[in-house]
């Protein structure tokens, strides 16, 4: 159990850094909907941190993994539906370069998190532990997919924007 606790503690630190990334970059976003999306994701990353903290505490106290029961689609839909709807309504009347850079960074960060959890799931020997890491990977894949789609869509719009306004 100790090796899994160490992996989860590392994951907690990643989630804390993700929270800080989204919180700080929300202030840099030029589009109000992008700002709101980043603020929401900061909350989601903090929720992930607390989820992992609860798992670690349970493992320390009971020497077993707490059963994972959650609706992955609900978690992903928390921010995707509203943010996607609102972002689609905005145009690129403002410079998107800073937002594009942050969206790409967010995509790469979430991709890294998903790969980390997939790797941990592959190495896990116990079924409950494997399920835990697979669930976490699925969370992050949803975020990764969302940011990749947003980045690609905005990059395409930006690249075909008439230069000079």
UniProtKB/TrEMBL annotation:
Pfam families: Rubrerythrin. Residues 6-151 form the Rubrerythrin diiron-binding domain. It comes from the Bacteria. CDD domains: Ferritin_like_AB. SUPFAM superfamilies: Ferritin-like (SSF47240). One of its GO terms (molecular function) is oxidoreductase activity. This is Rubrerythrin. It comes from Alkaliphilus metalliredigens (strain QYMF). The lineage of its organism: Bacteria, Bacillati, Bacillota, Clostridia, Peptostreptococcales.
